[in-house]
Amino acid sequence: MPDYNSEILQLQAALQYSPNNLPLLHLLANTYFKYQFYTEAEATYKEALLIDPQNKELKLGLAHAFYACNKTDAAHIVVEELLAHQYTAPSLYMLLARLCFAEKDYKNAKENYEIAVSKDKFLADNDFLVEINHAINQNKLAVPMSHNADEVEDEDGFFTEILEKPNINFSDVGGMENVKEEIALKIIHPLRNPDIYKAFGKKIGGGILLYGPPGCGKTHLARATAGEINAAFIAVGINDVLDMWMGNSEKNLHEIFDTARTNAPCVLFFDEVDALGASRSDMRNATNRFLINQFLDELDGVKYNNDGILVLGATNSPWYLDTAFKRPGRFDRLIFVAPPDKIAREKILDILLAEKPIDKVDTKIIAQMTEGFSGADLKAVVDLAIESKIPESIRQNRLVPLNTNDLRQVSAQYKPTTREWLQTARNYALYSNESGSYNDILTYLNLKK
Q1: Is 446 left (phi over 0), alpha (psi -120 to 50) or beta?
Q2: Which residues lie across from 163 on neighbouring strands?
Q3: Distance between the two ends of the chain, CA-based, in angstroms?
Q4: Under 8 Å CB-to-CB from 449, ≥6 apart: which residues?
């Protein structure tokens, strides 16, 4: 066992000679935390922050110390502050996942856990994931779903799936014309022209894999697809499928597909599908392989009739998906959902600013200067601009409206979250693209292999 007393004493002695040495204070705080002296760690992080109040790593350390000392409210405040300032360290999202879990916000706990692991796979904690999934499933059984959706009950009387009838369509989706047409070929045109498709022996439905940077509207597009044809819509998260008991995950997946078949035409949307269909060659757990085999069996439609079912999968990491999913009859269309173009960004900004107090906002100017921004990035820009107006509104005791300059200032400082993804995607498109699946990325980046 390490001699933590010696390590701590040496750092304390060094600080006697240099009491305002920020790196030494940071190291001492981290050392306290490492050896579970959480109260001392908290005090030392605070001391260091007096020297450098804007140091995000110190604030993250303080948030971890607060959490370890069961000061969850204080930890949450620090985490929210860091997120507001666009700090996106993977461990920050894992801490937020634990905070949400402690507050019984299991859905957000799961979402933040997935973000953390997608950024750093070494943060994966299977025991914690099982806890989250178990809590979600227990909560699902204990609390009835929204009465605004169609309720489908299993034979035990529990609601097993929620069918939506979205009230949006393609007109509510800015840009993405090529993507819309690809989707239309699979389900919209067949439903409107059944005789033509029947003559050519083409079925209604199939599988499409949407991939691209996070926050670019893949989920919104899937919901709009269902609204375009007045079809049922089922959004499936991994928590709806995964179960801690052997065989239950496969059963859940089969019931979801059965619900879609019963309510065809139906759009079945799997968000973060790579979490359910990761490459089997990288798996050590046979249970996960069984789930993938079940998924492939459901997609094939050999045992079951999938006519009228459009299966949309969305992923930020298509390179991690098992290659078997990309074969004909499964997710045989791989569509790149790029960051919105200028026209789409302008429409997104118009939607985001609707019913907000604004004064002469020229969204064309903001759209022009936000190249590469995702829809989520644009929302963050608007939110940050609004936050800058709230203190002024309070001081003047009136609503001070947003103007073009407010949005311009925030846009100039904000770094789009798509950059990191595009750099990773660029490497795959250049060096791991034998089948040409990622040629759309090369086109978007103006690169030639």
Answers
A1: left
A2: 150
A3: 53
A4: 429, 430, 433, 439, 442
DSSP character at residue 278: B
> Could you give the CA distance from residue 447 to residue 361 in angstroms, rounded to a whole number?
35
Sequence-separated (6 or more) residues with CB below 8 Å from residue 60: 78, 82, 87, 89, 91, 92, 95
Pairing of strands 266-270, 309-315: parallel
The third-level CATH classification (topology) of the domain covering 4-142 is: 1.25.40
Superfamily of domain 150-336: P-loop containing nucleotide triphosphate hydrolases (3.40.50.300)
Separation of CA 214 from chain center:
6
Domain locations in the chain as residue ranges:
4-142, 150-336, 342-415
Number of helices (H) and strands (E) in the chain: give both, helices first. 21, 7
For residue 144, whether the previous peptide bond is cis, meaning omega lies within 30 degrees of 0, is no
Structure tokens at 196: 């033509």
**What is the rounded CA–CA span in Å between residue 206 and residue 185?**
10
Query: Would you state the CATH architecture of domain 342-415?
Result: Orthogonal Bundle (1.10)
Of the candidates 58, 69, 1, 68, the residue with the CA atom closest to the CA atom of residue 24: 58
Residue-by-residue pLDDT tens, the chain, 449 positions: 345 678 888 888 888 888 888 889 999 989 989 888 989 999 999 989 888 888 999 999 999 999 999 888 888 888 888 988 888 899 999 999 999 998 888 888 898 998 888 888 888 888 888 888 888 776 654 433 333 444 444 443 333 446 778 888 888 777 778 888 888 888 788 878 888 888 888 777 788 899 988 888 888 888 888 888 888 888 887 777 877 677 788 888 888 888 888 888 888 898 888 777 665 555 444 456 778 888 888 888 667 788 888 889 888 888 888 888 888 778 878 889 889 889 889 988 998 898 888 888 899 999 999 999 998 899 999 999 998 888 888 888 888 889 999 999 999 999 998 988 898 888 888 888 878 888 889 888 888 65
- Which residue bears the tokens 């200067």? 369
- 3-state DSSP assignment of residue 153: strand
pTM over 0.90? The answer is: no
The one-letter amino acid at 340: P
